[in-house]
Amino acid sequence: MNQELMEKIFRALKQVVDPATGLDVVRMRVIKDLQIKDGGRVEVVLQPTSPVCPLAYKVAADIKLAIKNVEGVEGVEMKVENFKDAARLEAMLKEI
After folding, report:
1. Which uninterrupted H or E stretch holds 5?
2. Would you say residue 1 has pLDDT above 60?
């Protein structure tokens, strides 16, 4: 089950494109860790392309929504690393 759900999540993430580069977030390797916990809860570690990436908020929100909309996902928790406004970005993501 988890492997199938993981594949669905990565298919969804390949549709999330960074507007600055035109590359999807999987190819850009901004997702440093992704785990599926009991009951379909997903935990994601995101590392924006730079500590001051101006598009980090949009890309992070797009990532969360893409995962959240995958059938079988019951919740998404995101942690942000190596970004100057990580706490603020994480707080915003909790609202989505």
Report:
1. helix 2-13
2. no
